[in-house]
Amino acid sequence: MPLHRFASRAIFYFASAAWVASAGFAPAAAKVSENLSVATPFEVGDSPAGNYLAAVVAGADRDTVAAATFFREALRFDPRNKDLVERAFVAALTNGAMPEAFTLADRLLLLEPDNGLAHLALGVRALKAHQYSTARWQFGRGGGSEGGDLTATLLTAWAYQGSGQTRRALDLVGHLDDENFAIFRAYHQALIADVAGRKDQAAQSFQAAYNADKSTLRLVDAYARFLSETGKNDQATEVYTAFSQIVPDHPEVRAALAALKAGKTLAPLVKDVDQGSAEVLYGLGAAGGRQGDDLAGLIYLRLSLYLDPDNALALLTLGDLYERINQNEQALDIYQDVPEADPLRETADIEISQVLENLGRSDQALSHLRDVVDDHPYDEQALSALGNLQRAHDHYDDAVVSYTRALAASKKPESDNWPLYYFRGIAYERSKQWPKAEADFKHALQLFPDQPLVLNYLGYSWVDKGVNLGEAFPMLRRAVELRPTDGYIVDSLGWAEYKLGHYQEAVTDLEKAIDLKPADPVINDHLGDAYWHVGRKLEAHFQWNHARDMGADPADLPRILQKIKYGLDAVPTKAGEAKPMIGEKPTAADAGHKQNGG
After folding, report:
1. Which helix (H) or strand (E) element contains residue 487?
2. CA-to-CA distance for 557 and 595, rounded, in angstroms?
3. Is residue 365 a contact partner of residue 353, using CB atoms and an 8 Å limit?
4. Strand, coil or helix: what is 342?
5. pLDDT tens across 520-539, in order?
6. Is 3 helix (H, G, I), strand (E, B) or coil?
7. Predicted pLDDT of residue 374
8. Do residues 273 and 162 lie in contact, with contact meaning Cβ atoms separated by under 8 Å?
9. Angle at the Cα of 344 (from 235 to 248), degrees rounded to 5?
10. How many whole angstroms separate alpha carbon 28 and alpha carbon 313?
11. CA-based nearest residue to 379, from 26, 29, 27, 19
12. What would the 3-class secondary structure string for 39-97 be?
């Protein structure tokens, strides 16, 4: 597995990424958090073939704990199998089991001396041990170090700095002459020069990197900290304030501005070779995760955290990656590792509540998030997250309160607050306060006139109430134009046509919705109703049976069963008696479709 196969993925890595718009921060005394982790147990078998197959399946699912465990067991029965050693090594590395990964890397190089990933791992181990010449040798064997490979070049440069060869380190970074690497070049030359004490050279490189990109948090933070470090707190404040116009109220920026206002000097972002090398690996890992290269993302982030285990941004990025690949137990462990005193700890706590919800631990999720809000009562992100969780569990009155508090606490431009009005509108509508809901939806559309989710919800609600039909249908059609592949939004248009008796039009739209969301019970139920009214009664029963078998909402299931038995022409009243049906009322799940579009 050549080293360059990972490095070539990342053209631009600086990570404003998932955490640029994250939660606020209010300094608080450190506290001991409850350990919320509960691992799902699994058994290791006695069969080598069985363990190997289990390891392959776990690896494909990115279940790094199980993959590492099963490959380790399989390897015991065939210790010189090169493919098995390599797979076990990668599994251990992605799981963060670094001593095991390094041992396996040594074994792998005996079997495959040019394995780039093994050389990368062992080079990082040498960096951590301050064995800089060994690190350079490993990086050179793995991917070359003369400007052709981004990872090897930057890590080799930091290894030269570790040996005190600053000029050679800076020259090597200068070999990154591809224009795509221009910001890398300036950024890491600035960091290396700063660590080496060459402040004038660092200032020039930082200025060049900042001039090229003023919207990336990591670069902005590094530059502002350098300005503070060199006695220029006023300029540092200006840099952070300018960034706040792009991303208001970021927790790290807020904490830094508070420190500057108090007359403090900020510590540099990168203090030594370990942190500089970790910065290289963190950036590449963040890029891999964003570009969908999960394996590269996991490997780079694990290596970065080996060098700098308290890097909160790397921990959050790794946790987010685990969350996106549905490895929620690992995500929970990672988020809990974010240091309590770090400005990003609140962001981690908000994510912990989401992971608990993903794991089906809803009571814990709500309790944990309420604790976050108690600690940060004026933080918009925490309040908004609490409102979302309350709304998801039908606590609509509580959600209204949380969204209202979030709006009062918001420091963003008013136009950026449309989601809060939209979500509060949903909570009002579900709690039967339609005038307030309608006002919020209209205000959200004033802030974001063509927002398809709001168009969908308000347009459907008007059709459902039989009002403003002249406005409602153009809104629904516009929502479909904007989100033509969103099955829920297409379903809303089809169901609105159905409710007005436009059955053939409803069939056309609902069939499109089914193509987009074939396994959705509500859409299948809706299409069944439309089929019935155009005389396609056999197909109607087929769709209702689908809805029943796809896990229909318990509140809807009795009506679906009635339709399967009696159709839409009659429903039973007393035994042996039937009553004609006037038409279908929207079910509990219909309201969910209005809000779930997208």
Report:
1. helix 487-499
2. 21
3. yes
4. coil
5. 999 999 999 999 999 999 99
6. coil
7. 96
8. yes
9. 50
10. 19
11. 26
12. CCCCCCCCCHHHHHHHHHHHHHCCCHHHHHHHHHHHHHHCCCCHHHHHHHHHHHHHCCC
Q: Can you tell me which residue has the tokens 């136009």?
A: 415
What does the pLDDT read at residue 219?
Answer: 95
**Nearest alpha carbon to residue 145 among 121, 168, 111, 128:** 168
What confidence tier does 460 reach under pLDDT thresholds 50, 70, 90? very high
Q: What is the model's pLDDT at position 179?
A: 83
Evaluate the CA torsion angle 573, 577, 579, 580 in order and state its sign: positive
**pLDDT for residue 84 is more than 70:** yes
State the pLDDT at residue 33.
Answer: 53
Question: For residue 434, which amino acid is it?
Answer: W
Superfamily designation of domain 4-261: Tetratricopeptide repeat domain (1.25.40.10)
Map residue 206 onto helix, strand or coil: helix
The tokens for 477 are: 């059609």
Distance of CA 282 to the CA centre of its chain: 16
In the chain, domain spans: 4-261, 477-596
Alpha carbons 366 and 232: distance in angstroms, whole number: 44
Element (H, E) at 578: strand 578-580
Tens digit of pLDDT for each residue in 232-290?
999 999 999 999 988 888 999 999 999 999 999 999 999 999 999 999 999 999 887 67
Give the torsion through C-alpha atoms of 100, 103, 104, 106, to 10 deg: 160
Tokens linked to 228:
């503070």
In this chain, the answer to whether the domains covering 4-261 and 477-596 adopt an identical fold is: yes
- The pLDDT assigned to 154 comes to 95
Q: How far apart are CA 352 and CA 347, in angstroms?
A: 9
**Which two three-digit tokens encode residue 208?**
């060049």
At 197, which helix (H) or strand (E)? none
As a whole number of angstroms, the distance between CA 484 and CA 493 comes to 11
Whether residue 517 contacts residue 488, with contact meaning beta carbons closer than 8 Å, is answered with yes
Tokens encoding 198: 């060459």
Q: Which two tokens stand for residue 21?
A: 């718009």
Summarised one tens digit per residue, pLDDT across range 196-229 is 999 999 999 999 999 999 999 999 999 999 999 9
Contact 479, 451 (CB under 8 A): no
488, pLDDT greater than 50:
yes
- Structure-block tokens of residue 61: 């699912």
Give, for 484, the enclosing helix (H) or strand (E).
Answer: none
What confidence category does residue 379 fall into, taking pLDDT thresholds of 50, 70 and 90? very high
As a residue count, the chain comes to: 598
Cα(271)–Cα(195) distance, rounded to whole angstroms?
6
Q: What is the pLDDT of residues 33-70, one digit of tens each?
A: 566 655 555 555 566 667 667 767 776 777 777 777 77
pLDDT of residue 310: 93
Specify the CATH class of 477-596 in words.
Answer: mainly alpha
